Automatic annotation (TrEMBL):
<keyword id="KW-0238">DNA-binding</keyword>
<keyword id="KW-0804">Transcription</keyword>
<dbReference type="InterPro" id="IPR036388">
    <property type="entry name" value="WH-like_DNA-bd_sf"/>
</dbReference>
<dbReference type="InterPro" id="IPR023187">
    <property type="entry name" value="Tscrpt_reg_MarR-type_CS"/>
</dbReference>
<dbReference type="InterPro" id="IPR036390">
    <property type="entry name" value="WH_DNA-bd_sf"/>
</dbReference>
<dbReference type="Pfam" id="PF01047">
    <property type="entry name" value="MarR"/>
</dbReference>
<feature type="region of interest" description="Disordered">
    <location>
        <begin position="151"/>
        <end position="179"/>
    </location>
</feature>
<dbReference type="InterPro" id="IPR039422">
    <property type="entry name" value="MarR/SlyA-like"/>
</dbReference>
<dbReference type="InterPro" id="IPR000835">
    <property type="entry name" value="HTH_MarR-typ"/>
</dbReference>
<feature type="domain" description="HTH marR-type">
    <location>
        <begin position="9"/>
        <end position="136"/>
    </location>
</feature>
<protein>
    <recommendedName>
        <fullName>HTH marR-type domain-containing protein</fullName>
    </recommendedName>
</protein>
<keyword id="KW-0805">Transcription regulation</keyword>
Length: 179
């Protein structure tokens, strides 16, 4: 199969995927001493605004509930979350961060930040803006199973910038800055 894509665009795409793999590898290395994976950190971050049931959390972080269940089992076994039966619906489990879970989120965020290159010549704002345009340009119906983490907006006390369109699936650090 041949592509009509501009050679510069193809080279840029390859650089994006290479950069993503390199950062993911560095994040994995940074999280390993904490006993965490990126999937675990995403689940933990999804709970920072307050307790949710498993289905709400799965929807908030855009993963399958069954897949999330395995991650939650590991997080519960390590004491980072608790799962308790919901008072009004015994079929539902309330998932909540423990104090250790809150500390793990903080440690994971610091570890992930330290995994990024510390180069003053990198124009982070310009890079974020261009990557945001790139993500917005990806058709919604293509690759629907791969959606970046989006913090839930329904939680009480949760401060979240309102986004519209395709950008709503971006993490806070991927969001264009509001001046």
């Amino acid at each position: 199969m041949t592509s009509n894509l501009d050679p510069d665009a193809r080279s840029s795409y390859r650089l994006i995927t290479l950069a993503a793999r390199l950062i993911q590898r560095r994040q994995d290395d940074a999280l390993a001493p904490l006993g965490l994976t990126r999937a675990a950190v995403i689940a933990l971050e999804g709970l920072t605004g307050g307790p949710l049931n498993q289905e709400q959390l799965a929807e908030a972080i855009r993963v399958q509930s069954q897949t999330l269940g395995r991650v939650l089992t590991r997080l519960e076994a390590t004491g980072l979350i608790t799962r308790t039966r919901h008072a009004s619906d015994r079929r539902q489990l309330r998932v909540e961060l423990t104090d250790s879970g809150v500390a793990a989120v903080d440690a994971a965020r610091l570890a992930e930040i330290n995994a990024y290159p510390d180069d003053p010549d990198i124009a982070w704002k310009a890079l974020r803006e261009e990557l945001t345009k790139f993500v917005r340009a990806i058709p919604v119906n293509r690759g629907a199973g791969v959606v970046p983490f989006a913090p839930p907006e329904h939680r009480a006390g949760h401060v979240h910038r309102q986004q519209s369109g395709r950008a709503s699936g971006l993490r806070g650090w991927e969001q264009p800055r509001q001046n």
